[in-house]
Write a structure and sequence with these properties.
It is built from nine helices and eight strands. It folds into two domains: about 1-45, no CATH class; about 55-235, 3-Layer(aba) Sandwich (Rossmann fold). α5 (about 105-115) packs across α7. The chain has helices at about 5-25, 40-45, 70-75, 90-100, 105-115, 135-140, 145-155, 180-185, 210-220, and strands at about 25, 35, 80-85, 125-130, 165, 190, 200-205, 225-235. Belongs to the ComF/GntX family.
């Protein structure tokens, strides 16, 4: 345990950032302007798509007054709630792709900061969306786990990194139409951790149709989870 006072730790963090900025100045990922040690400049950060928008509390699709959307009223999904901090559009889409496929882990710090600004979830455990072992070997890391670990620490919640196994190496959901996505992901998850009576918060990067998160929640509820809330970086907006 560190013997440094909180104020001293803050000062050291500021000093480290100042040194890093001086030695390794960074350009904004979106516009190329100087951004110090940050991924985005202050202007682009303020203008991220969907930031601060009202959303359906169940599926996080944009809603004018933050009311439950018609789709969730017609048929409630297996999960209980979803929070998304951004819309999946430029430059968020490029930032997420840089994290997932370009191994640019620095973008995860930005996402964690944005996600941590929302209220702390009423949950007992944090679960990242798992990758199939073959996909994990190929990519080298699970981007959802890279978000879940620091978020769980900030929330003061335990994180479970190996409590669910993804048995099916499914085709990428983004390449499939909606009905095919549901069939593609069915039965993909096997819960190995004891979740009876637990309130679970699931961490993922992008929610598109919600088919993967719905199947994951279905597996968690079948294993005894009492409540499942999703926290995602970005939500794909409804078609115009």
């Amino acid at each position: 345990m560190s013997n440094q006072a909180p104020g001293q730790r803050d000062w050291l963090a500021v000093a480290r950032d100042a040194v890093a900025t001086a030695i390794f100045p960074q350009q904004c990922f979106a516009c190329g302007a100087a951004s110090g040690s940050d991924v985005l400049c202050s202007v682009c950060l303020a203008e991220l798509p969907g930031k601060g928008d009202a959303r359906c509390p169940v599926c996080a699709i944009g809603q004018p007054l933050g009311e439950i959307c018609g789709a969730c009223l017609r048929e409630a999904p297996p999960f209980d709630a979803t929070r998304a901090v951004l819309d999946y559009g430029f430059p968020v889409d490029r930032l997420i792709q840089a994290l997932k496929y370009g191994h640019r882990l620095s973008t995860s710090r930005l996402f964690v900061d944005l996600m941590a600004a929302a209220p702390v979830p009423e949950a007992d455990i944090v679960l990242p969306m798992p990758l199939h072992p073959a996909r994990l070997r190929e990519r080298g890391f699970n981007q959802a786990a890279e978000l879940a670990r620091p978020l769980a620490q900030r929330w003061g919640l335990p994180v479970l990194l190996d409590g669910v196994v993804r048995d099916l190496d499914t085709s990428p959901q983004a390449s499939l139409p909606w009905k095919a996505r549901v069939a593609n992901i069915r039965g993909a998850f096997r819960v190995t951790a004891p979740l009876a009576g637990k309130r679970v918060v699931v961490i993922d990067d992008v929610m598109t149709t919600g088919a993967t998160l719905a199947e994951f929640a279905r597996a968690l509820k079948a294993a005894g989870a009492e409540r499942v809330e999703n926290r995602v970086v970005a939500r794909t907006p409804a078609p115009a």
